[in-house]
Every structure is written in C-alpha cells, then in structure tokens.
Write a structure and sequence with these properties.
Blueprint (H helix, E strand, L loop, with lengths): L39 H6 L11 H14 L4 E3 L6 E3 L6 E3 H14 L3 E5 L4 H12 L22 E4 L2 H10 L2 E3 L7 E4 L8 H15 L13 H9 L13 E2 L5 E2 L3
Parallel strand pairs: 2-4
Antiparallel strand pairs: 1-3, 4-5, 5-7, 6-7, 8-9
Helix pairs in contact: 2-6, 3-5
The structure holds zinc ion.
The site of zinc ion (ZN) has 7 residues, from strand 5.
C-alpha cells in the first residue's frame, strides 16, 4: 500500500521546512558522503532539492507504513478535507483528533489552508534536524531531534498565513509556538496522544527485519545506535518493506516474519 502524499501545490523549500525546537549550530562531522552513498545521511549532506522529501520518498513511505502497523488507525488523511492543501512530498496526515479539529478550523474560516508540514517520520525529522545543525541549511531555522518532534505524533502542523489562522487554531485546541517558529502549531487538547515512541519503534522494527544479525533494541527511544542506523538507512527504502506481521500478547509487533 502506498501512502497518500500531498499533491503538488507549493512553495519554495525555505518556507516548507521550519520546525519547532532547540537551536544549535554544528557541522555533521561524523558524516562522510563517500561512505554514505545512497543513505539518508547523503540526503542530509546533499543539495537542497524540491520537493524537499523526494530524495528519500521510498524510505519515508516504509517507515510511515510501519508506524501504521504499530498504531493502526491513528492517522487520518488530510486529502479528504476540503480547503486544505499540503506541500508536495509531505505526508498529508494528522492524528485523528487533530484532523477533526482541523476540519472545524477550515469550516469556521471558510478559506483554504496551506499546510507546509504535518505528520513526519523519524527519517524526515532526522534530515531536517541535520540541516538545522549545518548552519540552518535548506531553510530550516528550527528543528527538534529525530525522536522529539510533535510532528511524529501527527499533533503538529506548519502552515502559511499563521497570523490569519491563529485565532481559529487557538479556539479549537491548538497552541501557537511563538515568534521563534511562527508557522508551527501544536495540538494540545487532551484527546491527542503522544505517539513519538511508536514513531521511533516503527523504524527500529523495520530496521530489525532487514538487519536480523544486529538488531536494535526496540525501545521507542533514539539512542546512539538507532541514530546511526537512521543515518545509514537506504534513502530508496529497505529491501524488505513494511509488514505488519504478528502482534504478541503484549501488543508489540513480532519483528520476525
Ligand atoms: Zn513544525
């Protein structure tokens, strides 16, 4: 199954990749392009392309699909909403509660909402964070680390015209991040669920299915080993794509096929 991606609509890269979070300035000193050919690290070191996520769409889709195995039915596609358009290459999804809220927001204002970014995978968040660390390349001024952004839970959104939309978002359960990242809103109503550990777990499970001899601990936390494997992941996707497999009695998906 292929995920529904955003229709081409947007938007120069510099306006599409802002995110909330910590500031930092360092070079990615551990990344050697010649050793990383074909990996996500290559993308993080490479030219800024448009659409921004097209360089690793294969991996992006696999990790997103694996998340849907770990947390089935939690995300809803924005493509079913009138008056919402999403930047090309981005995952056009939000967590169900945030989606329902967004439907009320666009109905209330009766204008088209341009979404720069909604749900993300750890792969996408990794690239954005690396660009931020590399002197804010590719238009990324602010970005949280791969496992920490609310975008992973489908509970954050970056939009155009934040001034015009702000009062509508704040009425329906969202919080504006502030002038440091003005395009970013977090859904803070109590019916939203923190799914960031599941987003990390999805990558760890997918990696283990493709690397059974040296599996990662499936913790839902990005440790050094997991971060290294994200960097080394093939940008076109793993040999074995996402499979939902079997679920054991604890609710965890069995990584073996
Ligand atoms: Zn954001």
């Amino acid at each position: 199954m292929r995920l529904i991606l955003a229709i081409p609509a947007c938007l120069f890269i510099a306006t599409c990749v802002l995110d909330s979070g910590e500031w930092g300035r360092r070079k990615s000193g551990n990344l050697d392009p010649k050793k990383q050919e074909g990996t996500l690290a290559t993308v993080a070191l490479g030219n800024c392309v448009h659409p921004v996520m097209s360089a690793f769409i294969g991996l992006q889709e696999q990790v997103a699909e694996k998340f849907n195995c770990v947390e089935p039915g939690t995300m809803k596609s924005l493509s079913s909403l009138r008056r919402v358009k999403v930047a090309p290459g981005r995952l056009a999804e939000l967590q169900a509660a945030a989606y329902e809220s967004l439907a009320k927001i666009v109905a209330a204002r009766k204008k088209t909402l341009a979404v720069r970014s909604a749900r993300r995978t750890v792969a996408e968040q990794y690239v954005l964070h690396e660009w931020m660390l590399q002197d804010h390349r590719c238009g990324v001024s602010v970005s949280k680390k791969a496992g920490e952004s609310n975008h992973l839970s489908g509970l954050a959104i970056d939009i155009e015209d934040d001034r015009g939309w702000r009062k509508y978002f704040e009425k329906y359960g969202w919080k504006w991040y502030g002038p440091e990242d003005p395009v970013h809103f977090d859904y803070i109503a109590p019916d939203g669920r923190d799914l960031r550990p599941s987003a990390v777990r999805a990558f760890q499970l997918l990696l283990n299915e493709n690397n059974p001899d040296a599996p990662l601990a499936v913790t839902g936390v990005i440790d050094d080993n997991t971060e290294a494997q994200i960097a080394a992941a093939p940008r076109s996707g793993f040999a074995q794509g996402a499979s939902c497999g079997t679920v054991d009695e604890s609710g965890w998906i069995n990584a073996s096929r």
